[in-house]
Design goal:
By secondary structure, this protein is an all-alpha fold. The chain contains 22 helices and no strands. Among the domains are: 140 residues, no CATH class; 76 residues, no CATH class. It is globular.
Length: 425
């Protein structure tokens, strides 16, 4: 009854006055709500204020509401409400004026950077590219561009172009003073592994978890970008991944542990197992990664560590089936935190590993179909293609194709997809 009375009263308000009413409601809510409650009612307050922003002409007031939209967007982003976050960030940007890069640099930078992230997470790639370009053109320092570059990397991955993602990562690393050999030789790889081995010589691997926290801005930016391209390098240029893993470990030992150090330790452990054939040492680095992930308690970090360790390390010493529960946890952590790149790799592993472990094909075909649909929804085109290949393989094995020796069917056609597959790899 109360809601109906409110609706009736609202209907009686003249259209020309409604904007002012919403604006006043928003101001009253903001002023009369305690700071503790304000965080809980943030969306309600900002939504009311946004209705009436065209009535506000004083730029200082518009800037304050832009800051509230920034907070609302960040809260929505944390809750994986990406479309809502994008809307709030865009509203905040519209409240700024043409001089905002000069007069409100920090606010303008963070709104553009956050909007770019929300844009790629919600699939607005053209808008994301426009926002990234604006940051690259206006930012005062290289460090101020790192978040925008990271969004560009993730957007290329979402669009199924890992080569461009890797190119963008190497570009910003160069700007940060880090030069990596794009096509490493065997000698380059050997030199990288030897340098890293010398870094922890005489140390107990398990003690690396107690390194101090990494605090210097440049190493933090570098390890963030390395973490963004390490998976891509594995797909596009595996030898380069070895150097990236080594660089991440070197940075951590020299500058302290960051959230992405756990991925560096896991990737390095993978190299030790698969390249160096030192299973014991690789396994210890894998355990170090998992223990650090547990200590840091970060869902994005947890997703990456669990995937890398369970897909690339654990199976050297344990049965493949023992990794399935951890891989499922990794997938869930990735979905819940917006870590869609590694969530996609988790989906891949949760289908291919059971296939190699001998799971019953009817059940596995249904499971693969579910994950293939899920990876499409989070815009992971490359992984979705890999899963289509597997699902078609299963259909072939079950006699549901014209020629079981060729991947040509309703889900995948090897003749049509060959050139695209070569381009992705």
């Amino acid at each position: 009854m109360h809601d109906r009375v409110q609706q009736a009263a609202y209907a009686l308000i003249d259209e020309s006055q409604k904007l002012g009413v919403h604006l006043q409601i928003g101001r009253n809510l903001f002023e009369k709500t305690s700071p503790e409650q304000r965080a809980e009612r943030l969306f309600e307050i900002v939504d009311q204020l946004n209705y009436g922003t065209e009535l506000i002409t004083e730029q200082s007031q518009r800037n304050e509401i832009a800051k509230l939209n920034l907070q609302a967007g960040q809260k929505a982003l944390a809750a994986t409400a990406y479309e809502a976050a994008f809307k709030y960030f865009n509203t905040g940007l519209k409240l700024l004026n043409v001089e905002s890069w000069q007069r409100e640099y920090d606010l303008t930078l963070v709104l553009h950077s956050e909007a770019a992230e929300a844009a790629y997470l919600s699939g607005h790639f053209d808008e994301m590219e426009r926002l990234v370009e604006e940051v690259l053109n206006r930012a005062k320092t290289v460090l101020d561009t790192v978040k925008a570059y990271d969004s560009r990397i993730q957007a290329w991955l979402a669009r199924g172009n890992p080569k461009e993602a890797l190119k963008a990562g190497l570009e910003v690393l160069q700007l940060l003073g880090i030069s990596l050999v794009e096509a490493p030789s065997q000698l380059d790889v050997q030199a990288g592994l030897e340098e890293t081995a010398s870094q922890f010589a005489g140390r107990e691997i398990e003690d690396l978890i107690d390194l101090p926290e990494m605090t210097e801005p440049v190493p933090l930016a570098v390890i963030r970008i390395l973490a963004s391209i390490v998976g891509t390098a594995f797909v596009v240029r595996p030898a380069l991944m070895v150097l990236i893993a080594c660089k991440m470990v070197n940075l951590s030992i020299t500058n302290g542990n960051a959230i992405w150090s756990l991925l560096g330790y896991a990737a390095y452990g993978m190299m030790l197992c698969g390249v160096v054939q030192d299973l014991e040492l690789g396994y210890r680095f894998g355990k170090l990664s998992l223990n650090l992930a547990k200590r840091l308690n970060n869902k994005r970090g947890n997703c990456k560590a669990l995937l890398m360790v369970n897909f690339h390390i654990i199976h050297w010493k344990a049965h493949l089936k023992e990794t399935f529960p951890a891989l499922a946890d990794a997938y869930q952590s990735g979905i819940e935190s917006g870590e869609f790149e590694f969530a996609g790799y988790c989906a891949f592993s949760l289908c291919y590993c059971p296939f190699f472990a001998g799971q019953e094909l009817t059940e596995l075909e249904q499971q693969t179909a579910i994950y293939r649909k899920a990876t499409s929804q989070i815009r992971r085109e490359t992984v979705s293609t890999w899963l289509a290949m597997l699902q078609q393989t299963i259909l072939n094995l079950r006699g549901q194709s014209e020629n079981p020796s060729r991947l040509v069917g309703c889900l995948y056609n090897e003749e049509e997809a060959l050139s695209q597959a070569i381009a992705c790899c």
